[in-house]
Design brief:
alpha/beta; Rossmann fold; eight-stranded mixed β-sheet; two-stranded antiparallel ribbon; 22% helix
Length: 266
């Protein structure tokens, strides 16, 4: 009888452009990631609200580091399996750059819309609510794809932003994505036991969703505070689901902020 497939979770505190070079060729089934949007430069500061505390409009210094999609083409193509998929969250100011870099390299370049059912209100009623975010979708012919029904397979998905217990409080990540959305994408674009890669994992939402759906996960995060938060979230998710026996033991090297960990158990 064949040995039972063991999943693994690997968390890396490093610049993903460095760590990507260590990932073996054609070892990743799905790249699902949320790079900085580089919109902090357009911020006009916190938003005052009548009779309430001002809304924090500071995305953080990490969003000021320029993201050049061309920097990721070679490694994303190299590590992805021939039947793999790529989903990249992005914004209006970078969509054209992702298209210019990746469209010539893949058979299909599509976009997907996440509609937030509870966006921040426009208190002063002077523009549209910021209720939609875009996701770049890339694949080649023969890619794996779990098509359900015509009604459910629109390139459009509605759900709330993170609220309540799902929203990680310390540190708070302003761009934390909801698990419901991530599970929807992972279910469509990968299978159980597949390996999911998130080079910009933030506070680890993709990792939690992958764990819940019986996938392995590799996540890289350059910000130490977010990296530590991901460790805490993953341990919490494992405890809640009592899934410790289904996943390989996370050793000290994999959780070391000083080292990138290993890839030996792929």
């Amino acid at each position: 009888m064949a040995a039972e497939k063991k999943h693994f979770i690997r968390l890396i505190n490093d610049d993903c452009r460095t760590y990507l070079r260590q990932i073996p060729d054609q070892s990743i089934d799905l790249i699902l990631t949320d790079p900085p949007y580089n919109i902090a430069q357009y911020s006009t500061g916190n938003i005052p609200l009548p009779g309430r505390s001002a809304v924090n409009n500071d995305l953080g210094s990490w969003d000021l580091n320029d993201i050049n999609p061309q920097d990721f083409v070679a490694d994303f193509k190299r590590v992805l399996k021939p039947d793999g998929n790529i989903f990249i969250f992005t914004s209006y100011n970078l969509l054209g750059k992702w298209h210019a870099a990746f469209d010539p390299e893949f058979d299909t370049f599509q976009y997907f819309i996440w509609h937030k059912t509870n966006p921040m209100p426009k208190i002063y009623k002077n523009g549209f609510l910021n209720s939609c975010e875009m996701i770049v979708c890339l694949w080649n012919k023969g890619h794996k794809w779990n098509f359900s029904t015509q009604r459910e397979m629109h390139n459009f998905f509605e759900c709330p932003i993170c609220m309540g217990q799902e929203r990680w409080k310390a540190p708070k990540h302003p761009a934390q994505k909801p698990l419901k959305l991530l599970r929807h994408l992972i279910t469509i674009a990968s299978n159980e036991n597949d390996v999911i890669l998130d080079p910009f994992m933030g506070v680890g939402s993709t990792g939690v969703a992958a764990l819940q759906l019986q996938r392995s996960f590799i996540g890289c995060e350059i910000e130490p505070d977010f990296y530590v938060a991901t460790q805490q979230r993953i341990h919490q998710a494992l405890a809640q689901q009592d899934s410790q026996q289904a996943y390989q033991k996370m050793d000290q090297q994999q959780f070391s902020a000083a080292g990138p960990g290993t890839f030996s158990n792929l």
